[in-house]
Task: structure prediction
Amino acid sequence: MNHPVSVGGVVVNAGDAVLADENAILIMPASEAEAEAAAIHAAEVEAEERRILARLANGEVLPDISGATRLIAGEA
Result:
């Protein structure tokens, strides 16, 4: 437990991400998995920012988009 092991000639360490399906197995070092997760999160944040900017360009106001208007009105 918590020691490197060799699986099919690939070293797997504690904390590594192991993803598998019927076609393949992917082993990603923990540091790369964390970086990948951060990159995915950044892409999601950027996509949400684009959606908000599009809504603003269509005339909506930020308090309505963010839910602040409902919160202040006590509807949340």
Notes: The radius of gyration is 21 Å.
